[in-house]
Write a structure and sequence with these properties.
Elements (H helix, E strand, L loop, with lengths): L2 H23 L3 H28 L11 H37 L3 E5 L5 E4 L1 H7 L11 H4 L3 H9 L6 E4 L7 E9 L3 E8 L1 H37 L9 H29 L7 E3 L1 H16 L4 E6 L3 E5 L1 H17 L6 E9 L2 E8 L21 H6 L6 H11 L3 E7 L3 E9 L3 E3 L8 E3 L1
Helix pairs in contact: 1-2, 7-8, 8-12, 9-10, 10-12
Bound molecules: adenosine-5'-diphosphate (ADP).
The site of adenosine-5'-diphosphate has 23 residues, from helix 10 and helix 12.
Length: about 450
C-alpha cells in the first residue's frame, strides 16, 4: 500500500470520526458519520470531474496539484502524457526521414494496404506509374496498372521474382515491378525503369548478331578455298598440307561458333514463348541418339528409355537443339567405354527429358556457372572436342522459351545427369500412345 493510499484511508477515517463527534453532540451520531463521509466523497467527485474535463481537452485544462492520492494520479498522467509526446515526436521524425529518403529514390515505391489499395507513394512512383495525389490514395493498384503480366504477378501471390511490363502512362517505358510483402497483409511495390538497360541489351545482341552474320560470308569463301586446297594438297601445295588441314579445322570451328552465336541471338531476340507446334519427341530423340551413336563410333554404350506418344508443344529447331546439345555433351565428356542413358517420359507434373552419363563429371563450384556463355570447365578439352562454349546457353534459352527448367546433378569422376522439365500444359499424348515405355538399346 502506498503512503498516499494510507493517507486517504486515514483521511476518510478522520472525517467519519469528526462527523461522529459533531453528530454525537446533537444526538445524531449516525447522521454525523454519514455527513462526514459524504463530504469526503464530494471532494473525490470534484477531482474526478476535473480529470474528466482534462481528458476531453488535455491541452486547455490544467490539472491542479491536490496532493494525496489524486496528486499521485495527476502526476502519473502528466508523466505518461510527456512520454507519449516524446515518442510521437520521435516517430514523426522517423516517418519524415523515411519519406524524405524514399522520395530521393530513383525507384518508384508504392505502399499497398491489405486489399491492394494505395496507401502512399513517392515522387518516382508518381512519374513512373502516373499516380495522382490525393485522388489515387485508396485506389486499388490492379485497377491502375492493368497490363496482363502485372495482373498475373499481382494476383499470384508469388513474389519471389519480379515482372516486366510497360508503364501504364507510356508504353515506350519498360518497368520492372517487384512486390515485397511485409507486416500483416501490407505490400511494398518497387518499380524500376529498365528501358535503358533493355536498350543496351538489344544493341549488344544486335551487334553480336550482325557481326556474326557479316563474318559468315567471308568465312564461307575461305572455307571453300581451304576445302579445295585440302582435297588437292599435292604438287606445290604438298609442304602446306598440314597447315591447310589445321586452317580448315579452325575455319570449321569458327563456322560452328558463328552458327551458335546466331542461334543464341535468334533465341534472345524472340522474347516471347515458343509457338505451339506438336512435336513428335520420341522420333526426334531416336534420331538424336542415332546421330550421337554415329559420332561416338562405338566408343560409348547408349541406352534409351523413350515413352512413345509423349509429344511436346513447342518449336522444332529449338527443342531439337536442347536434345542434340545435351546428348552431344554427354558423348564429348564421357571417356570411351562409358554409358550414356537417354530418357523421355511424362507424369502428372509434365514431360521430362534426361541424359545421364558416366563421364568426367562437374565439380560443385562449376555447376552454377555452366549455362553462362563461353563458360567451360576445361577450355582445352572443350576446344579439342569442337565445343563452342555456347551449347548449354542455347539449351537454357530454348528451355526458357518452352517454360522449361533444367536441373544438373554431377559428381566428378562419376558422371553427370541433365534433366529438363517441361510443364504439363505443353505435353500432348498421341492418340495411339497406349503402350508402356519401350527400352531401345
Ligand atoms: P562446350 O561447347 O564447351 O561443350 P557447353 O555450353 O555445351 O559448351 O558446356 C559448357 C561446359 O560444361 C563444357 O565446356 C564442359 O566443361 C561442361 N559440360 C557440359 N556437359 C557436360 C557433361 N555431360 N559432363 C561434364 N562436363 C560437361
Amino acid at each position: 500500500m502506498t503512503p498516499a493510499l494510507q493517507q486517504e484511508i486515514f483521511k476518510a477515517g478522520l472525517r467519519g470520526l469528526l462527523g461522529l463527534l459533531i453528530g454525537g453532540l446533537f444526538g445524531h451520531w449516525l447522521l454525523g458519520v454519514g455527513m462526514g463521509l459524504a463530504l469526503y466523497l464530494l471532494m473525490h467527485l470534484r477531482y474526478l470531474a476535473v480529470l474528466r474535463n482534462w481528458f476531453s481537452a488535455p491541452k486547455l485544462v490544467e490539472l491542479p496539484e491536490p496532493g494525496g492520492i489524486w496528486g499521485e494520479v495527476y502526476e502519473s498522467l502528466l508523466n505518461l502524457q510527456k512520454r507519449n509526446r516524446k515518442r510521437k515526436k520521435r516517430l514523426a521524425a522517423i516517418v519524415s526521414e523515411f519519406q524524405a529518403s524514399t522520395e530521393a529514390l530513383p525507384d518508384g515505391a508504392v505502399v499497398l494496404g491489405e486489399r491492394g489499395e494505395i496507401v502512399w507513394f513517392n515522387t518516382a512512383g508518381r512519374t513512373l506509374l502516373g499516380l495522382r495525389s490525393p485522388q489515387d490514395f485508396g485506389q486499388r493498384i490492379a485497377n491502375l496498372v492493368r497490363h496482363p503480366a502485372f495482373t498475373a504477378y499481382f494476383t499470384s501471390g508469388d513474389y519471389g521474382s519480379e515482372v516486366e511490363a510497360p508503364s501504364p502512362i507510356n508504353t515506350a517505358v519498360l518497368l520492372s515491378y517487384r512486390i515485397i510483402p511485409y507486416g500483416s497483409g501490407q505490400r511494398l511495390l518497387v518499380v524500376r525503369d529498365i528501358s535503358d538497360s533493355r536498350r543496351l541489351d538489344t544493341i549488344r545482341r544486335d551487334f553480336v548478331a550482325n557481326a556474326s552474320h557479316e563474318l559468315r560470308t567471308p568465312l564461307t569463301v575461305l572455307r571453300g578455298y581451304l576445302d579445295m586446297m585440302s582435297a588437292d594438297a599435292s604438287g606445290p601445295l604438298k609442304p602446306w598440307r598440314a597447315p591447310i588441314v589445321e586452317m580448315r579445322a579452325q575455319a570449321q570451328r569458327m563456322e560452328a561458333l558463328i552458327a551458335d552465336l546466331l542461334k543464341l541471338a535468334r533465341l534472345e531476340a524472340d522474347g516471347q514463348q515458343a509457338r505451339l507446334d506438336v512435336l513428335d519427341v520420341p522420333a526426334m530423340l531416336t534420331r538424336a541418339v542415332e546421330d550421337a551413336k554415329a559420332v561416338s563410333q562405338g566408343q560409348h554404350c547408349f541406352e534409351s528409355d523413350i515413352a512413345p506418344g509423349v509429344q511436346l508443344l513447342g518449336r522444332d529447331v529449338e527443342v531439337q537443339s536442347i536434345f542434340t546439345n545435351l546428348i552431344a555433351n554427354a558423348g564429348q565428356y564421357t571417356p570411351a567405354g562409358g554409358v550414356i542413358r537417354v530418357r523421355w517420359w511424362a507424369d502428372t507434373e509434365g514431360a521430362h527429358f534426361n541424359v545421364a552419363d558416366t563421364g568426367i563429371g562437374i565439380s560443385d563450384k562449376d555447376l552454377p556457372r555452366l549455362t553462362e556463355r563461353f563458360y567451360r570447365v576445361d577450355v582445352g578439352r572443350s576446344r579439342a572436342s569442337g565445343g563452342t562454349g555456347l551449347g548449354l546457353s542455347i539449351v537454357k534459352h530454348a528451355l526458357e522459351r518452352h517454360e522449361g527448367r533444367m536441373k544438373i546433378e554431377s559428381e566428378v569422376g562419376v558422371g553427370s545427369t541433365f534433366t529438363c522439365n517441361f510443364p504439363l500444359h505443353r505435353v500432348q499424348m498421341a492418340v495411339a500412345a497406349v503402350a508402356p515405355p519401350t527400352a531401345l538399346v
